[in-house]
Amino acid sequence: MTIQLHCFGESGNAYKAALALELSGLDWEPVFVDFFGGATRSEDFRRDLNPMGEAPVMVDGDVKLTQSGVIQMYVTETTGKFGGTTPEEAREVMRWVFWDNHKLSSQAGMTRFLMNFLPEDKRPQPVIDFMQGRLKAAYATLDAHLDGRDWIVGDGLTNADLSCCGYLYYPEPFGFERQDWPHIDAWLTRLSQQPGWKHPYALMPGSPADRA
Amino acid sequence: MTIQLHCFGESGNAYKAALALELSGLDWEPVFVDFFGGATRSEDFRRDLNPMGEAPVMVDGDVKLTQSGVIQMYVTETTGKFGGTTPEEAREVMRWVFWDNHKLSSQAGMTRFLMNFLPEDKRPQPVIDFMQGRLKAAYATLDAHLDGRDWIVGDGLTNADLSCCGYLYYPEPFGFERQDWPHIDAWLTRLSQQPGWKHPYALMPGSPADRA
């Protein structure tokens, strides 16, 4: 049975799940969530897909999961891929996935939303400035870690990479400039050269171009 | 060997790990981290304990872990406790632990810090107001989920509870009022009645009283 991922192109959190599914070789298809039309906040969505009111949602037969980190764990459980090769690596992968959810993707996603997807007169500049400061500390941590490493954990691609990259390929400005962080820049290039890699707007339906 | 948890009382993220260790019955001891003296930002801390510059850090012999969610997974791996009783419950536990890291504890911790631990003339009111709005959505999600349930997942205490409660017992104001959320309120009371439960300022060294 084909796995369905309810997602939309603008969501880096959905991208983390979609990219794990795609690169794992599992049979999956995206189902468009009209986030900007209010879909995730609707009664139907909360009742049928996710009471948390968030995308992505993965449906694989009877299994319905949300939270990109948990969907990534499910891909690992199902295929043996991206989870690290030892118990130590497995913990280190989870450590970076949690760090990403806590310090990188959560804050990057919110800041990008405020700067690009709110009407100009509704953008809370003091919040944007504050979040950009916090994000710089996160970029610095990741950049320093990637100095001398090809991948975040061990010798190959893991969920740590697939999580931390979630918002970093998007073209909309949110204060992240690849050239400022050379080790992140090289790692993003390396990851994008993996067979089967796709940009979020190519991997999932929906993009700002649709609403232009 | 006694497990050491580098932590401090004011940290709800550390509390999530400390409470899991305490209620699991594992042999552990807290090691005070002088966060307000700058310890987590020091070169020594980043080199010896955590390059991410964050507490808590757990040390169990050769195993050194950070991120409260990963320490909780380690407690489950070691003791069989708090991880849910079926694969479905295990995924549901992780779903709430990720949700907490993403939407509840991360934002509650930051907002509480800004409102209580910064000098009054440095508190960014627009950021505080914005974060309180986002947190209300998180409280509403958790409160609705706990309607008719004793615990977040299944019939007993899991890491989902031990994660989501991280910042909710603290006395410092950050916009969370227990009486506004009756199902959260009842669940916090239920959790605090578990044998061995302790308040964060009783479980870990360091509290605002030390700096008064």
From TrEMBL, chains A, B:
Annotated PANTHER family: GLUTATHIONE S-TRANSFERASE-RELATED, HYPOTHETICAL GLUTATHIONE S-TRANSFERASE LIKE PROTEIN
Protein family membership: Belongs to the GST superfamily.
Protein name as it appears in the record: Glutathione S-transferase
Keyword tags: Transferase
Endpoints of the signal sequence: none
Classification lineage: Bacteria, Pseudomonadati, Pseudomonadota, Alphaproteobacteria, Rhodobacterales
CDD domains (alphabetical): GST_N_4 (cd03056)
Source organism (scientific name): Roseivivax lentus
Domain of life: Bacteria
Domain GST C-terminal: 86-212
InterPro entries reported in the protein's UniProt record: Glutathione-S-Trfase_C-like, Glutathione-S-Trfase_C_sf, Glutathione_S-Trfase, Glutathione_S-Trfase_N, GST_C, Thioredoxin-like_sf
Domain GST N-terminal: 1-83
GO molecular function: transferase activity
